[in-house]
Amino acid sequence: MSKKRLLSGVKPTGRPHVGNYLGAMRQFVELSKTHESFVFVADYHALNIIHDAAELAQLTNDVVLDYLAIGLDPEEVVLFKQSDLPIHTELCWIFNTLTTMPYLMRAHAYKDAEAKNKEINVGTFDYPMLMAADILLYSPDVVPVGADQKQHVEFARDTAEKFNRTYGDTFKLPEVFTPKEVAIVPGVDGQKMSKSYGNTIPLFAEDDEIRKRAMSIVTDSKGVEEPKDPEECNVFALHKHFSPNDIVNLEKRYRDGGIGYKESKDILADNIISFVTPMREKRKELEADKEIVQKTLAKGYEKAHAVASEKMQEIKKKIGVII
Ligand code: ADP
Ligand code: TRP
């Protein structure tokens, strides 16, 4: 039986954080051992946010290094950049002609922007259709993403169904993969960790920065001896991810009283540091190789293009633009 296929991507909009890693990137690495994997940098999605050329170029370069540093093997995994394949934006256009405005208005990202009275650009409004194109061109079985991206994968499924109904069976419906325990990793303020909330613990930060971020986790003001409900504590929420060996003991000490937030944060910082150090060191080695990013993307492009262009021929025949 042939291997199942995975596809996912991250947009280069800032430093990746441990929420991105646990919620999405780690799944890319784990599943790439058993799946034929396509993992890309969503630079055209980032263009909705970043309008400085040097910054976008740097952030894109960084995501490729991040992918390699977390252990994606470019010999096995197709690592590519969205903008290298204009087929993605071309298919997005085709989907635009099938999708209605009220449907796109249901997107959480759009509704949030509206609720905040933000001016929303057309690219942001259309974001889910570009994402549907990213996904459906590669016929993946599974799309690993964090909880906030689940709706977008559902939009891709709906779009596939709509196309199939209109033009005949063309697209496979992908499954979203979001392990429950890591669906929403909280940030230092207890909200979802997000680049846009300034509440992150960056994945490749140096020890000092990690320690500082851990110390900034928001807690109540209970004293050391007071019993504490671990489920109410933002520090404990992160221990669940980084302190598997200490968790039983920590929970007991929380409930009994006898552990202060300072000590709990120190333990957490130590554990996060041990967790991220190997990846951070690997990233430094990779950074020294000035050609590695271009080489990786060139190789990924070839393989991605072979798959995407074959699919696009089929699509073009179906819609009647090949005459
Ligand atoms: P951010 O919200 O920080 O801008 P992105 O939108 O770049 O993050 O997300 C990249 C991937 O990481 C997506 O699959 C997203 O669902 C996942 N992700 C982001 N934040 C979290 C989090 N706090 N918990 C779990 N997964 C997350
Ligand atoms: N929207 C995703 C994010 O913000 C990035 C992304 C773009 C993506 N296209 C995709 C993820 C296709 C999975 C599949 O993180």
Number of helical stretches of at least 4 residues = 14
Structural class comes to: mainly alpha
How would you spell out the order of helices and strands?
Answer: EHEHHEHHHHHEHEHHHHH
Number of domains: 2
Question: What compounds are bound to the protein?
Answer: adenosine-5'-diphosphate, tryptophan
What is the CATH architecture descriptor of the largest domain? Answer: 3-Layer(aba) Sandwich
Share in β-strands: 5-15%
Low-confidence parts, pLDDT < 50 over ≥5 residues? none
CATH class of the largest domain: Alpha Beta
Number of strands: 5
Characterise this structure.
With 323 residues, the chain is mainly alpha-helical. It has 2 domains: 4-183 and 291-319, HUPs (Rossmann fold), CATH 3.40.50; 204-284, Tyrosyl-Transfer RNA Synthetase (Orthogonal Bundle), CATH 1.10.240. Helix content is 54%, strand content 7%. The protein has helices spanning 18-32, 43-46, 53-69, 87-96, 101-104, 108-115, 122-125, 127-136, 150-167, 207-215, 234-242, 247-256, 261-287, 292-319; strands at 5-10, 36-41, 78-81, 142-144, 175-177. The strands form 2 sheets. Strands 1-2-3 form a 3-stranded parallel β-sheet. Strand 4, helix 9 and strand 5 form a beta-alpha-beta unit. The structure holds adenosine-5'-diphosphate and tryptophan. The site of adenosine-5'-diphosphate has 19 residues, from helix 1. Residues 10-11, 13, 19-20, 23-24, 145-146, 148-149, 182, 184-185, 192-196 line the site of adenosine-5'-diphosphate.
